From TrEMBL:
InterPro entries in alphabetical order: FAD-bd (IPR002938), FAD/NAD-bd_sf (IPR036188), RIFMO-like (IPR050641)
FAD-binding domain location: 5-341
Family annotation (PANTHER family): BINDING MONOOXYGENASE, PUTATIVE (JCVI)-RELATED, TRK SYSTEM POTASSIUM UPTAKE PROTEIN
Name by which UniProt lists this protein: 2-polyprenyl-6-methoxyphenol hydroxylase-like FAD-dependent oxidoreductase
Membrane-traversing stretches: none
Cofactor(s) needed for function: FAD
Keywords: FAD, Flavoprotein
Pfam families: FAD_binding_3 (PF01494), Rng_hyd_C (PF21274)
Organism: Arthrobacter ginsengisoli
Source domain of life: Bacteria
Lineage of source species: Bacteria, Bacillati, Actinomycetota, Actinomycetes, Micrococcales
Length: 499
């Protein structure tokens, strides 16, 4: 039996991001992935929201994605585009980039961190005890791990085997999404009719002079709403042909599918993100309609919230109770996404009364305050964790400020590339002493002369010091008295080391 500190089941964006986070902290981690090759990745998701790009920037890899994607204003609600170009972030946009490219780039980063991916294997059983989890694989191998994380999608075997409930709502609508060849050329773009929304787009493209140029011929990405909610199980080419004929009057001579998948507006969320030594992240913890393109994004952000906490527990830096904050912080974030996607689905039903309601919502979202509120939510920039009362920065994302340090100019996000927490001292140099935590927390003396801005909140008072967690959220804000700093350091990064 092979032993690892952490086994991640599922090598999609969530699992890959989590593996990278753990590897940065020196944790022995392995990914078990049922797909035999990265080439079998589909293009189910089509982009990254602003906060996810920031998260990647915090690890120094955002440029890899920006070099291949198309910058655009992609945040939206119920069909209304929400511009975030005036938001105080370096990445005041979304990024159009198919999931297969997102996974390929993440897999490359994880490979640089020497993470092992066991491909072409499925988990067939798990058994949890007080010290770890035994994991049985389809090839007969057994793994022993301290912690097991299910990143294995909405039908998660890990969630089911752990007995974690998955309450929610059954589907009311379904769509097929596929990568196929077509004998006839469809009209590319997004279309609406009595059935719902349909779209066709070329998947092969190149960047020329900063613009996406789609190649003629080759595979087509198809999304078509079905007349009735489709059955459980894997859809077939026949199912796709029938759906296209019903919705468009022709199937365009569809053939040679690379993959076909069905998604619905089924809306469910795990009752608990953790059962002792088993944890869930991404679609294994929450499923919802794809409205707003939020699923992949909140999954990656789940991983970044969980990764450093799990690493500290595995490395015996923090008590196991730190893992309780993962559910406490991320469950409400996904619950809000579930609520909003349900509302969005309701607003795109093709009857006249729903159309009237949608027009009213669109009118409201054209106003400044509602637009900023919903845009901050959809882009992930307004996430707020409950870490205590006080300064408005507490529990919110740390702005990527341009700092002046003794070593020269530096961005805040550059300080987070190694996944370690930072105590940023903006007051008198040498005024803070964190020697008992010096092995875990970086202390940086710096100056900043600009205004602090938060999306949807506006300007905030500049603090004298800020404690920044590895996921980029603020755990403590201090003035010259430094009250509560020791408690915050202990809560998030473990007890002090005795002199």
């Amino acid at each position: 039996m092979t032993g690892h500190a952490v086994v991640i089941v599922g090598g999609g964006p969530t699992g890959l991001m989590l593996a990278g986070e753990l590897a940065l902290a020196g944790v022995d981690v392995v990914i078990v992935e049922r797909r035999a090759s990265q080439d079998l990745v589909g293009s189910r998701a089509g982009g990254l929201h602003s906060r996810t790009i920031e998260v990647l920037d915090q690890r120094g890899i955002a440029d890899r994605f920006l070099a291949e994607g198309q910058v655009a204003q992609v945040a939206g609600f119920a069909g209304t585009r929400l511009d975030i170009s005036d938001f105080p972030t370096r990445h005041n946009y979304g990024l159009g980039l198919w999931q297969n490219h997102i996974e390929r780039i993440l897999a490359g980063w994880v490979g640089e961190l020497a993470v092992q991916i066991r491909r072409g294997r499925e988990v067939t059983g798990i058994a949890q005890d007080d010290t770890g989890v035994d994991v049985q694989l389809s090839d007969g191998e057994s793994l022993r791990t301290e912690y097991l994380v299910g990143c294995d999608g909405g039908r998660s075997l890990i969630r089911k085997a752990a007995g974690i409930e998955f309450p929610g709502w059954d589907p009311t609508t379904s769509s097929l999404i596929a990568q196929v060849e077509m004998a006839e050329e469809p009209v590319l773009g997004i279309h609406h009719n009595a059935f719902g929304i349909h779209s066709f787009g070329r998947l092969e493209y190149e960047i020329r002079d900063g613009q996406v140029v789609y190649k003629d011929g080759g595979p087509v990405g198809v999304m078509v709403t079905e007349e009735h909610v489709g059955p459980a199980g894997e859809p077939t080419l026949h199912d796709l042909s029938e759906a296209l004929i019903a919705a468009c009057g022709t199937d365009y001579g569809v053939h040679s599918p690379t993959w076909i998948s069905r998604f619905t507006d089924m809306t469910r969320q795990a009752a608990a993100y953790r059962d002792r030594r088993i944890l869930l992240a991404g679609d294994a913890a929450h499923v919802h309609a794809p409205d707003g393109g939020q699923g992949l994004n909140i999954g990656v952000q789940d991983a970044v919230n969980l990764g450093w906490k799990l690493a500290q527990v595995v490395n015996r830096t923090s008590a196991e109770s730190l893992l309780d904050t993962y559910h406490a912080e991320r469950h409400p974030v996904a619950a809000r996404v579930l609520r909003n996607t349900m509302a969005s689905v309701a607003l795109r039903r093709p009857d006249d009364r729903t159309k009237a309601a949608g027009e009213v919502i669109a009118e409201l979202l054209s106003m400044e305050e509602p637009r900023k509120r919903f845009a901050a939510m959809q882009s992930g920039l307004d996430v707020h964790y409950d870490v205590g009362e006080g300064h408005p920065l507490l529990g919110r994302r740390m702005p990527d400020l341009d700092l002046v340090t003794p070593g020269g100019p530096l961005r805040v996000f550059a300080l987070l590339h190694n996944g370690r927490p930072v105590l940023l001292n903006l007051g008198e140099p040498g005024g803070l002493d964190i020697t008992p935590w010096a092995d875990r927390v970086q202390l940086i003396d710096a100056k900043y002369s600009g205004t602090w801005e938060l999306p949807a909140l506006g300007a905030v008072a500049a603090p004298a010091a800020v404690l920044i967690r590895p996921d980029g959220y603020v755990a403590w804000v201090g003035d010259l008295t430094r009250l509560g700093l020791g408690d915050a350091l202990t809560t998030w990064f473990g007890p002090p080391i005795a002199a």
